[in-house]
Design a protein that fits this description.
This protein has 362 residues and is of the alpha+beta class. It contains 16 helices and twelve strands. It has one domain: Cytochrome P450 (Cytochrome p450, Orthogonal Bundle). Helix 7 packs antiparallel against helix 8 and helix 12 packs parallel to helix 16. It starts with a strand and ends with a strand.
Length: 362
């Protein structure tokens, strides 16, 4: 495999080596997002004015608004609430009975707390998970799964287009977008469309990464014992879990000019699939990359992207995962899992169902 590989069936280039992926993601003036990040032309031609699919000053302006609620100061204020939720949840689950770790333990903070903070009305909150999964399906190739997602995407777009300030929680994250429109920082069209920036990434990716982290620790009892003895390793374990989980396989970029990448030349006007998941398991960069190592702490992983378009909510996702894992480590002596079921999505990867038992610590 070279630095870039042409995929004739999809008519796009694929980049999967760690160093090459980071190079492409940093070269945002050549590999642009404004022409879409999907692996199909239909979505790329019919996108909304959101942060994910913008470049340059437009991207920076939108990103600065979007990121405000998930900066260090607001997250510091949020932490006690997340810790209380997590501690109560883990205590209630530590009965030795089997439960689905995906829909309960992994999903709890994103679904109950974060969806509330976004501040959509009940109709919107109830559908966020389904809308997010459908969005990621349509960002992949336009296969049967992608086509089947279209009705939900049309539902999401219909909801967004009719959304106004009276339908969101005062002071919530969506409300802040309308504030920015009132100040002239965003247009009204941007303010409503950018709700999608919260709906899509805020839930599924954190849930899938958290589920993978719990599964890895349950599958390696010795590692879990070590982690309980050394809880200072928790931040590094979160990084290692996201590296291996890589809940988003990859997004595309559009090359506006020729680009020499290692032993390959990517022509101008080419669609390029940037494979985060492949980069995170590149043996050129990580020793024994398929092994879960609680001492590795790969701070440079690309599970949350890299460069100007790195995930806006990665600090929030990291905080949620650290808090859940801390609660588990403090209260649970042993994790047990049965065979999980995979989720099927064109862009996301992870578990749909993870049967788990928590044995409470004495």
């Amino acid at each position: 495999m070279g630095s870039a590989v042409w995929l004739p069936k999809r008519r796009l280039w694929a980049v999967g080596r760690f160093a090459d992926v980071r190079t492409v993601l940093r070269a945002d003036q050549t590999f642009v997002s404004g022409k879409g990040v999907a692996a199909n032309d239909f979505i790329n031609r019919n996108g909304s004015p959101i942060t994910l699919t913008s470049d340059g000053e437009t991207h920076l302006r939108r990103r600065q608004v979007l990121i405000q609620p998930v900066m260090p100061a607001p997250l510091k204020e949020l932490r006690p609430r997340l810790e209380k939720e997590a501690n109560e949840l883990v205590a209630g689950l530590s009965t030795g009975e089997t439960f689905d770790a995906m829909s309960t333990l992994a999903a709890h903070l994103p679904v109950t707390v974060i969806s509330e903070l976004v501040g959509l009305n009940e109709r919107g909150r109830a559908r966020m998970l389904k809308w997010a999964a459908a969005t990621f399906n349509l960002l992949g190739v336009l296969n049967l799964r992608g086509i089947a997602a279209m009705p939900r995407i049309l539902q999401l777009l219909g909801y967004i287009r009719t959304l106004n300030r009276s339908q969101v929680k005062p002071g919530g994250w969506a409300d802040r977008l309308f504030d920015a429109a009132d100040r002239g920082v965003l247009s009204q069209a941007e303010a409503t469309a950018m709700v999608i920036d919260y709906v899509g990434p805020a839930l599924d990716t954190t849930i899938l990464a958290t589920g993978h982290m719990l599964w890895q620790l349950a599958s390696d009892p010795d590692a879990y014992v070590q982690l309980r003895a050394e809880p200072d390793l928790i931040p590094g374990v979160v990084n290692e879990a996201v590296r291996l989980a890589s809940p988003i396989r990859g997004f595309t970029r559009f090359a506006v000019e020729p680009f020499e990448l290692g032993d390959s030349v990517i022509p101008a006007h080419s669609r390029v699939l940037v494979l985060f998941a492949s980069a995170n398991r590149d043996e050129r960069h990580y020793d024994d990359p398929d092994r879960f190592d609680i001492r590795r702490n790969p701070r440079d992983h690309v599970g949350w992207g890299h460069g100007p378009h790195s995930c806006v909510g990665m600090h929030l996702a990291r905080l949620e995962m650290e808090i859940i894992l801390t609660s588990v480590v403090q209260q649970v002596a042993r994790l047990e899992v049965d065979q999980p079921k995979l989720a099927f999505n064109n862009v996301l990867q992870g578990f749909k169902y993870l049967p788990m038992r928590l044995q409470a610590a004495a």
